[in-house]
Amino acid sequence: MPEWMRGRQGAREGWSPEIQLSEVGAWIKLTSHSLMGVLMVRNRSGLPQNGWWRRNATAGWLGFGLCLVLATLVVSGRRLWLAWEYPRAGVEVAEALGRFSVIQKPPLVDAGGRRLGLIRTTGRGIEVAVVEPAVAREEQLLEIWDGDYDPGTAHVFSWDAEGTRLAFGMTNTVHFWEQGGGVQRAPVGQGLAGVQWWEGRGWLCLDRGRTLRLFRRTAAGWEEAETWQLPGGEGALRGLRILSPDMIAWVVGPALWRGSLTAREWSEVWRAEAGEVTWVDYEPQRDALLVTYSFRTNRVTTCRLVAVEGLRRGASTARVLAEGESILEGQWVMGGEGWAYRTVRNGKPRLRVRAQWLGREREVLEDGAVYSFCTAERGRALFVHGSVTNEPPGVWRYEIGSESLTCAWWPGEPGVALPPLQPVLTARAPYGSGHWAMFDLVPPADYRRGKKYPLVIVLGAYEWTPIAHGVSAQALARAGAYVALVRYRWDQRRIETIYDHTNHVLAVERVMRAHPSVDGDRVYLLGFSAGTLTVNALAEMYPGRYRGLMLCNRGDLPKPQVGLTDRILVTHGEREQWSPAEAARHGAEFCQVGIPMEYHVHPGGRHIIRSKESLRERALWKLDFVFGR
C-alpha cells in the first residue's frame, strides 16, 4: 500500500520509532545471514581449492559482503538516527494533554454554588455532566459521538432555585434532569433561544420561532401544558428572563421586551441606539437588567454595558456602566451592588469585577484567559471558566469579598499530571503602513544557542476551547519547534479577505525567518478548515518555499505541481464528504509530481474535531510529519 494511502485509525499505527528500529534489526539480520551464506557456499562453487582462483574468489566474496554491509548502513543508518533522535518529550505531552477534557459551552452553577452543569469532551465524543465540587462527585447525564454533536443546539440553560433540576439542550432537543429521577427529553421544533425555571409551575422554553412553551411535571414525565406566541421585530432572539411570578422579559435584535403571561400583554420597554443586544442578566432585588450591545461606526466597533432599571414598574431608565471595543457579557454581583463583565485585551478574554458602583475594578486570572463565568450565592461568588496561565482551562471559584481563588473543577483525568508546558508569548509583525499582524509564539523546549529549530506557522490562535489547538502547539514546541499561531480572523464569506490573511502570515513568516535560531529550510504551514485555503494560496504563490503542508479538515487541496512542497499531510473526519476513492485519486495526482501525501481519518468525526482521542491522534500525526521523516 503506498504511503499516502495509510488511513491510520490509531495514533501510533504505521510509522513510529519502534517500527523503524525493528526494520533496522531486520536489515542487519538479513545482511548477516547473507554474508554467512556467502562464506558457507564458497567451497561449493566448483572453484579450485588452491591457487590463484581460490585467493581471488575469497577476496571477491569478502568485497561483495563488505559492499552489502555498507549498503545496509546507508539504507538503515538514517532510520536508526531518526529513531534515536525522535522527540519523545513531544509524544509525552500529546499523550498527557489528550486526557484533558475541554468544556464546549459555558458551564452553569446553581444558586447555592453546590453543582455545576458541564458540556465537555470525552474520549470519542461529548458529554453533559453534573459535578459537585465540594464532594468530588460527578454524574454523566448524556453522551454522544463527536460526529453527532451540534454546537448550535448545545447549551446548559438553567437550574431551579434548589439546584435539584437542570435544563440543557442537545441535538435540537431540550433535556430535563432531576435529582434521583434521571433525564427526560422534549423536542423543540425550531431550536432553543432560552429556558428558565418558573417557580411552582415548570420549565418555560422559548424557541427561535418566538413560541414560548410551559412544560409541567406529570406522572408520564414533562409534558407541554401551555403556549404563548411572543411578538418582536427583526433580529436575533435571546435572553429569556423571569422578572416576577407573572412577568417575563426577552430580547429581539436591539429591542428589550416584557410581558404578562396571564394577561398575554406585551410591550417594548427599551431599545439600543444602534447594533444588537448580545447579553442580558436580571437582578430581582434591584429590578434591573444588565445589557451588553455593540455597534460599528467608521470601521471601529463600540461595545457598551448598560443597566436598564424599573422594568416591573414599566418606567425603565438606562445608565452606561462601561464602554470599550470589546465587551462580551456581564452579570450582576453582590446583590446588584456591583457587576462583572468579560472583555478582550491583547487578544485575550479577560474578566473585570467591580464589587460596588463607586469601587475599583479588579481583574481575575490576569495572566491567563477567561472563556465564560457565572455567579452563585447572590453574586458573592463567581465560577470562572478559564486558565491561570497557558494550561487547559478549568473552573475556578472566586470569592469577591476576600478575592480568593480556588479550583472547583480540574479538566484532567484522575491521576494524570499536567505535563511541562512551554510559555505562550504575544507578538506582532509589521506589514504595510501602520498595520500589525498579531500572533502567539510558543518557543521550543530545551533551547540552545546556535541550534536550528523548525518553524510551524499555524493559521489560528492559541486556544483551548471550543477546539483545543493548544494540544498540537504544545506537543510540537516540546518536541523542539517554534510554533507561531497567527490570530487574524477573516470573513470566510468574502474570498478577498482570505488573501488579506496571506499578508498576515507572510509578515509573521518574515519576522520568524529573520531569527537566527529558525531553520529556513524547515518551515511548515498548518491550516484548519477554511484556513487551508490560505495555506494552498501561499504554497501556490511560492512553490518550494515550505517543507510541508498540513491540511486539517481541509476546505480544498492545492493544485498538484512539481516542486510545490516536499510532502502533504491531510486529516479529516470519517463523516466528512471525502470518500476513500477521492483520497486515492488526489494521492495519485500528487505522487505523479513527486509529492507524497499522507492521509488520516478520525473515526466517527465530522468537520470539526473535538474529542480527546482525536486531538491526541492529530498531535501525534503532526509530530511524525515534522520530526519523523
Main traits of this protein?
four-stranded antiparallel beta sheet; alpha+beta; single chain; disordered N terminus; elongated; 39% strand; 629 residues; 36 strands
Describe what you observe in this structure.
This protein is an alpha+beta fold and 629 residues long. 22% of the residues lie in helices and 39% in strands. The chain is built from 8 helices and 36 strands. The strands form 8 sheets. An 8-stranded mixed beta sheet has the order 29-30-32-31-33-34-35-36, with helices on both faces. It is elongated and about 110 Å long. The two termini are 18 Å apart. Mean pLDDT is 85; it is low at 1-28 and 33-47.
Short description:
The protein is built from eight helices and 36 strands. The protein is an alpha+beta fold.
Number of strands: 36
Beta-strand content bin: 35-45%
How many strands, which pairing sense, and closed or not: the largest β-sheet? 8 strands, mixed
Instruction: List the total number of helices.
Output: 8
Which helices and strands, and how do they pair?
Blueprint: H1 17-41, H2 52-85, H3 88-97, E1 108-109, E2 116-121, E3 125-132, E4 137-145, E5 155-159, E6 165-170, E7 173-178, E8 182-187, E9 192-198, E10 202-207, E11 211-218, E12 221-229, E13 237-242, E14 247-252, E15 255-260, E16 265-271, E17 276-283, E18 288-297, E19 300-309, E20 317-324, E21 327-333, E22 338-345, E23 348-354, E24 361-364, E25 369-376, E26 381-387, E27 394-399, E28 404-409, E29 425-431, E30 435-442, E31 453-459, H4 470-479, E32 482-486, H5 495-513, E33 518-528, H6 531-541, E34 548-552, E35 567-573, H7 580-592, E36 597-602, H8 612-627
Parallel strand pairs: 31-32, 31-33, 33-34, 34-35, 35-36
Antiparallel strand pairs: 1-2, 2-3, 3-4, 5-6, 6-7, 7-8, 9-10, 10-11, 11-12, 13-14, 14-15, 15-16, 17-18, 18-19, 19-20, 21-22, 22-23, 23-24, 25-26, 26-27, 27-28, 29-30, 30-32
